[in-house]
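4.2 Preliminary Data

To establish feasibility before requesting continued support, the project team ran the inverse folding procedure on a target of 276 residues. The structure was first converted into the token representation described in Section 3, and no sequence information of any kind was made available to the design step. The complete token record follows.
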């Protein structure tokens, strides 16, 4: 892989990881465009770590708050009543618990579909179809008022469902951020809570997937080269700005504006898959 290809793919990963248009789907399209049929596993891992760092930087306050919440839970000891009170009244404790609960279905689905990843990621027809599905879900949010529940009012059942939607995003073409933000809005979360929960929920999923991938990468003797380093930096920078932009768009209730793009990209992918 050439250096410029690595940077382009890094920018593509950074932009599409957060903009609701499916990063996995666009990486498949980008790699097909460059004729890269088997990208290095370590390269893909590094790109995802670049976007993970972007989430950490943007939501550092929330992450710090949840770590402090863990201290408060520890101090509560074995007091069931105290723990229940913290879960109900302490925003950071509640948010951490919701992320933990939402990560369970994501992990289960990810492990189930892991063995089918190669087939899924090599099919332009699947990518195109799933992009069309993503566009439809985004368009359906157009009528959402955004006047919903905050973190303290979100139930664990809602967290499980949003986590389920995140798990389905292992399929290329299904946007992780689009699916989880839309699910949050459909279940009555306010816009800020839906977006914040979506991106914080992505952290355990990315970390878990990268740990599994790193084992395979190290076993294959993979190393870090300049292409990977520059691609990772590009993913971080592009991801940081894309995340900031999307948070503003969601707060304005305009996430549906990405639907036509998803439909167009999906149609192009389907046509390309048919004629190739």
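Position-by-position output of the design step:
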């Amino acid at each position: 892989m050439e250096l410029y290809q690595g940077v382009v793919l890094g920018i593509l990963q950074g932009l599409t990881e957060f903009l609701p248009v499916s990063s996995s789907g666009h990486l498949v399209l980008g790699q097909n465009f460059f004729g890269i049929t088997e990208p290095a596993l370590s390269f893909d891992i590094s790109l995802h770590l670049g976007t993970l760092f972007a989430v950490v930087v943007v939501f550092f306050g929330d992450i710090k708050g949840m770590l402090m919440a863990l201290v408060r839970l520890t101090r509560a000891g074995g007091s069931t009543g105290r723990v229940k009170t913290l879960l109900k009244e302490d925003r950071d404790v509640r948010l951490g618990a919701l992320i933990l609960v939402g990560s369970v279905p994501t992990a289960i689905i990810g492990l189930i579909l892991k063995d089918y990843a190669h087939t899924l990621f090599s099919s332009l027809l699947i990518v195109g179809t799933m992009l069309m599905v993503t566009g439809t879900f985004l368009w359906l949010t157009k009528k959402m008022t955004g006047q919903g529940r905050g973190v303290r009012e979100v139930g664990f059942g809602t967290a499980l469902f949003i986590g389920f939607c995140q798990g389905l995003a292992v399929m290329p073409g299904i946007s992780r951020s689009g699916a989880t933000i839309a699910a949050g809005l459909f279940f009555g979360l306010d816009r800020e809570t839906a977006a914040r929960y979506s991106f914080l929920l992505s952290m355990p999923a990315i970390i878990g997937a990268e740990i599994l991938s790193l084992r395979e990468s190290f076993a294959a003797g993979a190393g870090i080269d300049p292409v990977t380093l520059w691609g990772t930096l590009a993913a971080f920078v592009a991801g940081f700005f894309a995340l900031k932009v999307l948070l503003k768009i969601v707060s304005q209730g305009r996430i549906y504006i990405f639907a036509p793009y998803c439909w167009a990209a999906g149609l192009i992918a389907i046509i390309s898959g048919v004629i190739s």
